[in-house]
Amino acid sequence: MQLDRKALDTLAALDDAQLKFVINRLAVNMGVDIGQFDLKTDDAQKIRRILSSLTDADIALAQRQIDEKRRGRK
């Protein structure tokens, strides 16, 4: 997954069910089990606010972390 502002805006535009599905799939792909958490409507709203408030530096850091995880580093 390539993170950029457009990708985050696309995520933020999803309805609650779609957002939950994408978050769960991303977590599974990264080896994180979030099955015990239930994404509520106000949680989805908070996630959207966070996504829209991320800076370019935040996005770049997250992309580096994703790339490192893919290569098996921690």
Describe the structure in your own words:
The chain is mostly helical and about 70 residues long. The protein has one domain (about 5-70). Helices cover about 70% and strands about 0% of the residues. It contains 4 helices and no strands. The protein has helices spanning about 5-15, 15-30, 40-55, 55-70.
Average pLDDT figure: 87
- Please report the total strand number as a whole number: 0
Largest sheet: none
Helix content: 55-70%
Strand portion: under 5%
What structural class results from the helix and strand content? mainly alpha
Tertiary shape = globular
Low-confidence segments, ≥5 residues, pLDDT <50?
A: none
* Number of structural units classed as domains: 1
Count of discrete alpha- or pi-helical segments spanning 4 or more residues: 4
Q: What order do the SSEs take from the amino end to the carboxyl end, as H and E?
A: HHHH
What gap, in angstroms, lies between the N and C termini?
18 Å
From the alpha-carbon coordinates, what is the Rg to the nearest angstrom? Answer: 13 Å
Descriptive keywords:
mainly alpha; 74 residues; 69% helix; 0% strand
Walk me through the topology:
Blueprint: H1 5-13, H2 16-29, H3 41-53, H4 56-70
Helix pairs in contact: 1-3
